[in-house]
Amino acid sequence: MNVSRYISHKIEGADSGSFTSSVTKIAIISIALGLAVMVVSFAILEGFRNEIQSKIFSFGAHLQISKYDTNNSLEVEPIESVRLLQTLHRIPEVKNVQPFARKTAIIKTKDEVMGVALKGIDEKNGLSSMRQNLVAGKFITFSDTAASNDVLLSRKIADKLRLKVGDEALFYFIQNPPRVRKFTVSGIYQTGLDEFDEAYVIGDIRQVRELNSWPDSLVGGVEVMLRDFTQLDPTFDRMYESLPYDLKLDKITEQYAQLFDWLKLLNRNVVIFLILIIFVATFNMVATIFIMILERTNMIGVLKAIGATDNQIRSMFFFRGMSLTVRGMLYGNLVGLGFCALQYYFHLIPLDPENYYMNRVPIYWDVKMILLLNAATFLASLLAVLIPTYLISRIRPVAAIKFD
């Protein structure tokens, strides 16, 4: 039998109703709340980051290949796609490629006029990630024989032009000679990102080819989606070396640097916030163990007088502290994961898409991060328990027995 653990268990029962009992409850609550807040914070942060990144990737993928051009216009010189697509499909890190072409236009309705960029896509190489942003209607219906007249409008553009699903609109393309196309609104998308929602209309790439008199082999560029976003930089370096000199390769993190810098800033702020939470929780644990030792000074003196070693007495308080830590972590996980589950399935907390880019607080389940937070809390509490127990070695039996 482990004597230290046995005495620790007896102390736990004897402390019921005492001042120490109240202090230990506060310690358990502080650990539980600290862990719950950390779990919820990381789940929301990762959910927020993944939602924003997913919206950005749905428009620009991870990498974008286009003709090297000093012109900053949305319309670029075309590139041959057949050999390029074959090369990209042979790269192991590449998950999907999406040819595209852009054409600026003016949409005219009965009451409104608005300039947009028509982004033509081709789904022969895989379903477009834009489907995840659809909020009304249906996606573009592609045909094998002719270019589709379906287009997707953003919620903002549709509201400004007073268009809804099923309506038709005239698109005026400024070129020589000018051309007009009548398109049907098949669906409405919403990303919450003004960079996309205020500018882009999604359509069939064959419409852009017809307007520019391009053959089927020409595209405006190619978007490349990787299997693992964390491999963006090394894949970029390898792909950059293999591309012809007249093609340009862009990383999504550089195209929308302001958004990714903002996400990095959020990460930094949350880490600082979590460090403060762990510090407060562990400080409470240190204070709790100190109070336990002070209240049990007489008992410590008696144990030393009958031959107990400092390590045995230290282990007794260590087991007591670990018991409080485990209970606090159990309650913290129940509260934190329970809140995350409620928000994930029932969307209890809404958000304003105008300010937060999404209509609800997002939750991302990262098992590794949850385990890491639990491990960090346990280790921090372990150190917090060990620090005050070294006070025991300074307690002399004669003085401790007389202590009152």
From TrEMBL:
- Which positions, given as ranges, span the membrane? 26-45, 270-294, 330-349, 369-392
Membrane topology label:
Multi-pass membrane protein
One GO BP = lipoprotein localization to outer membrane
Q: Where in the cell is it found?
A: Cell membrane
Q: Which Pfam families match?
A: FtsX (PF02687), MacB_PCD (PF12704)
Residue limits of the ABC3 transporter permease C-terminal domain? 272-396
Q: Which InterPro entries match?
A: ABC3_permease_C, Lipoprotein-release_system, MacB_PCD
Q: According to its UniProt record, where is this protein mainly located?
A: membrane
Q: Which GO terms describe its cellular component?
A: plasma membrane protein complex
Which keywords describe this protein according to UniProt?
Cell membrane, Membrane, Transmembrane, Transmembrane helix
Show where the MacB-like periplasmic core domain sits. Answer: 26-233
**Keyword Membrane on entry:** yes
- Give the similarity note: Belongs to the ABC-4 integral membrane protein family. LolC/E subfamily.
- List the protein's name: ABC transporter permease
